[in-house]
Design a protein that fits this description.
Helix content is 33%, strand content 20%. It is an alpha/beta fold. It has a single domain (5-363), classed as Glycoside hydrolase 38, N terminal domain (7-stranded beta/alpha barrel, Alpha-Beta Barrel), CATH 3.20.110.10. Strands 1, 2, 3, 4, 5, 6, 12, 13 and 14 form a 9-stranded mixed beta sheet that branches. The chain has a 3-stranded antiparallel beta sheet with strand order 8-7-9. It has a two-stranded antiparallel sheet with strand order 10-11.
Amino acid sequence: MIKALDIWLPAYLRQTRKTRKTKGIRHLLLCVCDHFEPFHHVKKEKAIARVELWGDEFPKLTKPFLDSGGGAPKHTFFYPIEQYDEDILTPLAQLCRATGCEVEFHLHHNHDTAANLRVTLDRGKQDLLRHGLLSRDEKGQTRYGFIHGNWALDNSHPRGEHCGVRNELQVLNETGCYADFTMPSAPGRTQTQTINSLYYARGTNEPKSHDRNIIPAEVGKKPSGDLLLVQGPLGLNWNKRKLGCLPGIENGDLTGKNPPTLERLRLWLDLNIHVKGRPEWLFVKLHTHGAIPPNSSLFLGAQMQQFHRDLAAFAADNTGFRYHYVTAREMVNILHAAEDGHQGDPDEFRDYRYQSLISKDRRE
């Protein structure tokens, strides 16, 4: 861990010195991106049981809690497309129809090629479309969000492991990826120097293109580059010490041992992730591995319920603070609305550019 700090810590220290407090109403856009792997260390029967548990418990958990716009908590399941199974995706799609949750792409691959990756991604689209999942843009093209398995986006592992594809960003773009949600990966070595940011990157034939050729998302500027990257919070937590003196790393990971709290919420807000020129809309993308029992117990139990209560109380005690539960797709739609100069209530822009097939199905 200490060795990996040199990648991002200098940027964090520079960033904290530049933090500004925003006047007026602040809107928190809260998104949970789940690296959802039901088959993790279990066979199919147990994997199905894990999904059924979510289907039984998540709607009951979220029903009592509403955000500032009257919306219930949402979850985005980034499902490993290389592990497609109809018996898993059918109940997962049913859960999404019942709750407004959504499913996007997760992918583990190793020593791969660009040609094979295209085949895998196209097959993944067809598999999920059969369940009425994913989204479409204004031209009717299928779109998807992406999280790279083992954090190795664009062949970024120092030893070339867990990917193998040069210019992966361009392949993702050309197959319909609307944004990547992999970062942060700290304390791992695949972490980028760019942190706490919403930005575009241009792909190259060199590994880790998303650590260079950076174009910030900004009000009044059109999207540029090959891929939009939506990063989650990354910083130091001095209230969670290691060895009694070293600060812990805050990377937005939600686990049974590291649940969401108001203390962590304040850190996420202070890291100030926003579209340049629209600082009142704060983007907080968190991540988890929610199919694993210790973590599913968090999301489907008392700790998560308490966080929702605490969040509502925090909003009530802080005049001018609003919070919005969003999916990954909705978060990116709001991001693009900000780029186009929109302001005010971000709830108006949840379907700004990409329309969820699940949401359309629920409305009909």
